[in-house]
Amino acid sequence: MDTADAAQQPAVLGVFTAADMQGVGNLARPRPVDGRGGAKMILSKWPALADERVVHVGQPVAMVVAETPAQAADAAERVAVDYEETPSVVDVRDADAAGAPQVWPEAAGNLALDWPGPAPDDGSNAREVEKVFQSAAHRASVALVNQRVIVASLETRGATASYDRASDELTLRSCSQGPGWLHEMLTGAFGLPPGKLRVITEDVGGAFGMKSGAYPEYAAMLVAAKKLGRPVHWMSSRSEAFMSDNQGRDMFLRGEMALGPDGEFLALRVKVLANLGAFISNAGLVTATNNLGRCLSSVYRIPRIQCDIRCLYTHTVQTGPYRGAGRPEANYLVERLVDECARVCRVDPVAIRRRNFIEPKAMPYKTPVAVTYDTGEFGAIFEEALELADYAGFAKRREQSAKRGMRRGIGISCFLEHAGGVPVESAALRFPGGDKAVVALGVQGTGQGHGTVYSRLAAKQFGIDAKLVEVKQGDSRLGVPSGGTVASRSTMMAGSALYRTIEIVISKGRKVAARVFEATEADIEYRNGEFSVIGTDRRLSLFEVAAKAAEAGESLDSTAKVELPPTFPNGCHIAEVEIDPETGVAEVVAYAAVDDCGVVLDETLTEGQVSGGLAQGLGQVLLEQGVYDRATGQILSGSFTDYAMPRADHMPPLAGAFHPVPCTTNPIGVKGVGEAGTTGALAAIMNAIADALPAGAKAPDMPATPDKLWRALRGI
User: Fold this and answer.
1) What's the pLDDT tens digit per position in 261-292?
2) Quick one: pLDDT at residue 633?
3) Which of 46, 256, 351, 519 is the most buried (most CB within 10 A)?
4) Are 278 and 314 in contact (CB under 8 A)?
């Protein structure tokens, strides 16, 4: 690599390469997952800038800093790099084959982790599952591709890095899903004390899991800012985003169900090949293993489950969490398999589901995949969804479509996911003076309406006007440890932590009020924003008590940490599609969704989460696919010219309803809803497409493009 010409261009302040990144360690700092027999993952080094070798198209090798973006881009064109091409492997099935090109010499066979499932097992479970299959009356199986998708958030990634020489402190302003993870990963990579790096996140234009961790650009920018003594700013171009942002899904899944004579589920066996890309992102392994495996029981009684997942390296952009993060992949497999079970047993898809639901009286229900459901009314939700979708009237609608020359199908997708991710979360309340309470959070809003939800939650519990509550987030200096905004966890975790914090504040306030009133704590009650002496008209507002505490050198400021088990959002989605046999174009013409997300704190925001999730699920089923050339490793879907995104006119009318069953394992009863729309949509729409095809026609893998469907209709 020769950077001399680039460095001499007008207004160029510096050209940085791997040689300048000394002292920056491995950016791959994933949450650890143990493999078969306790084996540890094979972790490759993810550098800030590539040194000697690149392992996927788009990996950064140099960074040019200039006065303007245009000058930097012009100079970057003058960085001369000679590449020696080597064999590549991009498909996960190819990567798992004998003799495949090796991505990392330390990962033999490209295997980063061989995962035996979520429940501890010495191999006896697999043997018992095999016995069940050998004696089963029926067996059904599917093999599915859950294709790679590009996250394509409305706002691309970006950051501003700066350095204060006087304090020897770095600051990174970056669009993220919470400054905590960024701060932890970057201080770890740089070997910095926590106080030497501040991470700030302000408004974020979409994230969906992709913005939850650190990236090479951020590390390189911090190095440049310190060396140049000036702030360094970068916003990813859309082309850069296609080649560098964490991508989603990309798995090959096989599922087999053993069934009894009446279609009862006896055992499930799942084998998965998961494409990690060239590096392991912060939650890449968790997405492919625990997140997927723990959803396999879904809403059904399945006495035994065996799950084997092989996580492999390829010469592609790293994969990571994308809306649902393993949950949609699991549910897609299970619900496509359930429809195949119905076909094999010659049972209606509705009947076979009714036959196998876990009943409410079974709660708490311990599954074979190491989780215990606290609540669930799966059968009732199913019946409500059938009614909402007018399932009984479908035959008539199919006839009407046929008269217009269209093929119509209907698809059902029951689902259950585990929400919560990192089980620990904190929240803080501060009283800066006057009639104001400040809620400080480590979770980060990226369009979900956090400011609305948390201010109203605090106001309701305090009994005050929501206008008196200010929500602050997005700053590592707030000092609120957090697991970030991922895994539909924010409201259940941060909301519960806030609830506990308010309890602490009120308890502290009683002590202060008792002293001021010269009464006992037992005589002090708190109601509607006021502390009062029971049976008298002596009272002080919450803020007056906070001021009295400050006058005495005390404070009502409080922080609480909660540790909670996962929750289990669930529901049933039903889709109807029409396919034009002449063109192969499929249109989702109706969609019904009934969701149990526990207590609904804000119906408008919750409806928006379901609708947004549906849009992303629909996009994956019909349009989206990240494609690499299997011979060269070149990305072929590197722009919106070659990568289709859903538009408003793709969206069907959505008939939605909530069936809230309060969660019993957290104080506010919520379960999560951020990923439900996507989790339910994949199988609902694909099962509808399969139902619309002629008998015996094989449904294609996603995306169900017009070309694929046109061929399927003709048996080509």
Assistant:
1) 999 999 999 999 999 999 999 999 999 999 99
2) 96
3) 46
4) yes
